[in-house]
Structures are given as structure tokens and as C-alpha cells.
Design a protein that fits this description.
With about 575 residues, the protein is α+β, with helices and mostly antiparallel strands. About 25% of the residues lie in helices and about 20% in strands. This is Solute-binding protein family 5 domain-containing protein.
Length: about 575
């Protein structure tokens, strides 16, 4: 089966966990618009993001949803009903998948691994063989027994996809299987409760790519041609997993209801019903205070609104987000080949004011494509902080021949070409929109005229990402399960052909960056990877191919009666089966 990249490549950028080598290019077929999905996929990460719990001194008691044996999770993004982790593409679908299906490993809030379907694993000294020991007595939600064959089936299904096949590409025999030279992936074998996976080489993101894959049942999907999976609406809406919750009702555009699975191998969930409810972004506070929802991300609310909710008795959790905001230059354009211009634009933007006044201090500035507190993030002293310096911006602009010779306030070059650009901005975040409008005013002060175009996600996807029709654009990028930056920054991940998209949207290319990205992929040693990624960050920081704006804190408000809620950056629903409600 070949999944349509049109549904995924843009979504993966704003809500992704692509961590693998490969940099595929895929032609557009159909573009779906996206309201930015909440990225709540469990996975390997960075050692960051344990939730910081905040409670008000208020004695008020928050209202709770209708029953004492249910929890209602609010989301502004409607699930698509594609509840199969091999073909799911929306973050809200992935969130449901995370509690319906199981994976070999799970991620704790502190960034370390723990067993899930696998109770243990060992990596060989040469880092080319990984052996998992599986838990006993795992049941599928239809009563069938789970086996290692289900894991092998899932890996082979992933190998047949366009978007995710690189997750298993380093497993011995995968290429022969993809090309039809073999009926199975030879590097995967099972013996009782032991699963052995052999790799062609040491590959750093392996545990992130394979260890956190949701496992699907062979007895349900095995007899259906994979190219037909996305058409099996009944199976997709009513999935069979082995996780703590089972879907009992899906209402398109409204909600998903799940009930605790009695035979979950980790013990039946303490809360009987989990509901995901679609909530209008403008009605978050009202939905909470009325008791219609118990948990929701509130980072788009103003600080005073968040404070009012805390005063009303709700508990706030602040965690490091895995998403950074940026403005990208189209490096295909000759004008943006000038590093002086790119650096000047960065110096001209008062990013600290954006953080203080628009983000309301609820975040952190960044200067490279690695999020704060991650093990892969370079020391601040290794990077230029691009502190607001309009005088430096003007110096760089004039050094490149951009001067205002006619006194109209807009700089031009010797050919009379004006320094005028349009920044295209996705409309899914008011905070980002306001930041970009402020950027316009900053650039005006140094003689750069900017028009801001706020557009639907689907328009941005098709026109900018596939057709490369932009000068500058503002968007967000999610830091994936593994810090591997190959898909975003390796030269092979760029596409200059109209109608062909890849993840390096701005088409930045640098041989030194490529070399160090590849070094970081070739070892599982974290110190060696950190050294390689520091060099990547330093070069990108120097070249300034995009303006890195900020990482906004992720703030989750929940009912104070909920016990056991322990969100992390990449695993918001960690240990959901152990949550409980005060009686």
C-alpha cells in the first residue's frame, strides 16, 4: 500500500515525529487542510518535559464532567476516525491510538524508556542487534491472544508505506522485502516471548522508530490488501488494540468514547470511560468551568484567562513543548542566498519583546532547531543569540548594497529592486499571527517592507510546501521522538521541483550540516550524537536560513480531582490506566 503523502507530509511538519534517514520526495495528489493537531505521541525524546504542577490557593472546587467514572479530554482538532497507527495521520487520531494500541516500549515523563509490550530489551555491543522480551498473557480487545507475529506483521506493514518505511529501513532484509525479493523481513525473528531485530548498521533513532510503533493485530488486518486499509471505515472507527482502552463510539467531528479494557495486561484502567471531545478554541474556558471537559491544552489562552481557571480550582501543568515557531526564507530565491540579508532580518526582529508581550513570557527563545532542555541542544555559549540589534541589521544591509536612495523608507539595491517581501502565515495560531504582525513593524524600522498574508493551512500546504511559491512563511515545527534533524535539514531532504514536496521546505543545503547529521545517525552513543548535533546547530545558527522565534510552553489545565496525571512533552497520556478520580 502507498499512503498518500498529501495527507501526511504537511501534517508531519506541524505535528510530526519523523526521525529517520531517507528524505523522501513525494508528489502531491490531494491536500487536506489542518487545524494544528495536538502532538501527543508517545516516543523517545530528549530527557525533557516533566510536567510542572501549579495549583491556586483558591478554595473553590472545579466542576467535573458528568460522572465520577469518566474523564473528558478536550481537543480543538476533530479526530479523523483513522484509528490504525500504520495509516493514521492526525495528531488527535494518534492520541486515541496511543491508548487503544500498545508499543514495545513506552516513554516516561523524564524521557527514559520503560517496558510496555516488551518487559525488557538488550542492545548488542556493536549496536546492530536488539532483543526484546515480551510480556506474557497479552490479549487483543476481541479476546484473541497477542503474539510476536503481530509485531512482525506490523513492521512489514510499515515497510510497505511511503511515509514511514524508513523507520524500518535499517532492519536487515527490509529492502528485499519492499522490492518483492523476499516474503518477509529476514532481520526480524521470534522465539517464544523473544523478538530479535538485526540492523544493517548502528542506527541512533531505532528505538524511537520501532520501539514506539503501535502494534496492530494480524488476525484483523492480515487478510485485507494493505492498499484497501484506508477504505475500511468500520474497522478504522472501531479498532481492535491491546491497550488499556477500547473505542466504543466514534462521532465524526464530535467525540470518541472509549471504555476500559477488562483484560488489559497492565491491569484494568481505574477510570471506566475516557472521552475525547472536540471543543471550539474560543470556548475552552467556558467548557472547563461548566464541567463539560476535564483536561485541555490552554497555551493559546491569555495569562489572565489561565489565572481565572486556576482560581476556579483547576490545576495547571506546564511542560516544555516539542514545537518551535519560525519564519523560513525561500533559499531557492537569489535574494536569500545573501547571508548578510538573512542575518540582518534576524537581528532586526525584537524576539524578546515577542516572547514577553505576545507569548506573555510563557516560553523561551531558541537559536537553533533543537528545543530547550533536550540532551541534543547545544550550549548557549556555542551560538549567536541574535539579540535585538537594529543597528547591526542596518550595517549588514548596507554592506550588501541595500540602501534607501529615494527616501521612501524602503531599501533598494543598485538595480533599483526594493527590499519588499510577503510573509505567508498559517492561521491556526493567533499567537503566531500576532508575532508575525509585530515582525512586520520591526522590519519596517530598518527599511524592509513586509506584507503579511494570513491563510488557511491547506493553502499553505499546497502553494508553499509543494509548489515552493513563497518568499517567507511562518509556521511551527514539531521536534520529533528522536532529535535527528535529517528530514528538516539534510540537503537530500530539499526539493526544488514544483509539485514535489519534502520536509526541508526552505531548501537549505550545506555539506558540513549534512556530514554531521549523518554522524549523529551512525551511533547510539548520546555524547557522540550531542557533539555532532552541536556542529549542526552552530552551522545553521551562522547561516540563518530561518528566523527561530520561540518555543511556547505547553500548558494543560485539568480537573483538580484527577490523580495520577503526569504529563511529559511526548507522552501526555502517560500511565492513563493508573489515573483515578477523587471520590
Amino acid at each position: 500500500m502507498k499512503k498518500s503523502c498529501s495527507k501526511r507530509i504537511y501534517l508531519q511538519h506541524v505535528n510530526i515525529n519523523k526521525t529517520q534517514n531517507g528524505g523522501k520526495r513525494m508528489k502531491i495528489k490531494k491536500v487536506l487542510s489542518l487545524a494544528c493537531a495536538i502532538a501527543m505521541v508517545a516516543g523517545l525524546t530528549t530527557g525533557c518535559g516533566v510536567g510542572d504542577k501549579s495549583t491556586s490557593d483558591s478554595t473553590k472546587e472545579a466542576k467535573r464532567s458528568s460522572t465520577k467514572d469518566s474523564i473528558i479530554y478536550g481537543t480543538p482538532t476533530a479526530p479523523g476516525g483513522t484509528f490504525n497507527p500504520v495509516v493514521a495521520y492526525l495528531g488527535s487520531d494518534n492520541l486515541i491510538d496511543n491508548i487503544v494500541y500498545g508499543s514495545l516500549l513506552s516513554l516516561k515523563p523524564d524521557g527514559s524508556y520503560e517496558g510496555y509490550i516488551a518487559k525488557d530489551y538488550e542492545v548488542s555491543d556493536d549496536q546492530k542487534t536488539v532483543e526484546f522480551t515480551l510480556n506474557d498473557n497479552i490479549k487483543w480487545q476481541d479476546g484473541e491472544d497477542f503474539s510476536a507475529d503481530d509485531i512482525i506483521f506490523t513492521l512489514e506493514a510499515v515497510a510497505k508505506t511511503d511515509d514511514d518505511s524508513s523507520k524500518v529501513a535499517k532492519i536487515v532484509g527490509t529492502q528485499d522485502f519492499i522490492e518483492g525479493k523476499a516474503d518477509s523481513i529476514s532481520g526480524v525473528s521470534a522465539d517464544g516471548n523473544k523478538l530479535k531485530i538485526e540492523l544493517t548498521q548502528s542506527y541512533a533513532p531505532f528505538l524511537a522508530d520501532v520501539g514506539t510503533l503501535g502494534i496492530i493485530p494480524k488476525h484483523v488486518w492480515g487478510d485485507i490488501p494493505q492498499e484497501e486499509w484506508t477504505n475500511k471505515t468500520e474497522l478504522l472507527n472501531n479498532p481492535i488494540g491491546c491497550g488499556p482502552y477500547k473505542v466504543t463510539e466514534y462521532k465524526d467531528g464530535e467525540s470518541v468514547t472509549l471504555e476500559a479494557f477488562d483484560d488489559f495486561f497492565g491491569g484494568k484502567a481505574k477510570i471506566g470511560t475516557f472521552i475525547m471531545k472536540v471543543v471550539n478554541q474560543d470556548a475552552i474556558a467556558a467548557e472547563l468551568t461548566s464541567g463539560n471537559i476535564d483536561i485541555i491544552d490552554v497555551k493559546e489562552l491569555k495569562s489572565d484567562e489561565v489565572k481565572e481557571l486556576e482560581d476556579a480550582g483547576f490545576t495547571k501543568y506546564s511542560i516544555a513543548d516539542n514545537m518551535y515557531q519560525y519564519i523560513s526564507f525561500n533559499m531557492r530565491m537569489p535574494v536569500f542566498q545573501d547571508k548578510n540579508l538573512r542575518q540582518a532580518i534576524t537581528y532586526a526582529i525584537d524576539r524578546q519583546s515577542i516572547l514577553d508581550n505576545i507569548v506573555e513570557g510563557r516560553g523561551e527563545l531558541i537559536n537553533s532547531p533543537f528545543i530547550p532542555n533536550a540532551w541534543s541542544t547545544p550550549d548557549a555559549s556555542d551560538l549567536n543569540d541574535y539579540a535585538y540589534n537594529p543597528d547591526k541589521a542596518i550595517e549588514l544591509l548596507e554592506a550588501s548594497g541595500w540602501k534607501d536612495t529615494d527616501g521612501d523608507g524602503i531599501r533598494e539595491n543598485s538595480a533599483g529592486e526594493k527590499l519588499q517581501f510577503t510573509i505567508r502565515c498559517s492561521n491556526d495560531s493567533k499567537t503566531r499571527e500576532n508575532a508575525v504582525l509585530f515582525v512586520k513593524e520591526c522590519l519596517k524600522k530598518v527599511g524592509i517592507e513586509v506584507e503579511v498574508s494570513i491563510e488557511e493551512d491547506g493553502v499553505i500546504a499546497e502553494d508553499c510546501i509543494y509548489n515552493h511559491n513563497f518568499e517567507m512563511y511562518a509556521l511551527n515545527c514539531y521536534f520529533g521522538k528522536d532529535p535527528n534533524p535529517y528530514f528538516w535539514w539534510h540537503s537530500s531532504s530539499a526539493s526544488d521541483e514544483e509539485g514535489v514536496a519534502s520536509f526541508n521546505f526552505g531548501s537549505y543545503k550545506n555539506a558540513s550540516v549534512d556530514e554531521n547529521i549523518e554522524k549523529g545517525l551512525s551511533t547510539m552513543d548520546q555524547n557522540e550524537r550531542k557533539a555532532a548535533y552541536t556542529e549542526v546547530a552552530k552551522q545553521i545558527n551562522e547561516d540563518a536560513p530561518m528566523v527561530f522565534l520561540y518555543v511556547q510552553n505547553r500548558e494543560i489545565m485539568c480537573n483538580s480531582d484527577l490523580d495520577g496525571f503526569d504529563p511529559g512533552t511526548f507522552n501526555v497520556l502517560y500511565n492513563v490506566q493508573k489515573w483515578s478520580l477523587a471520590k
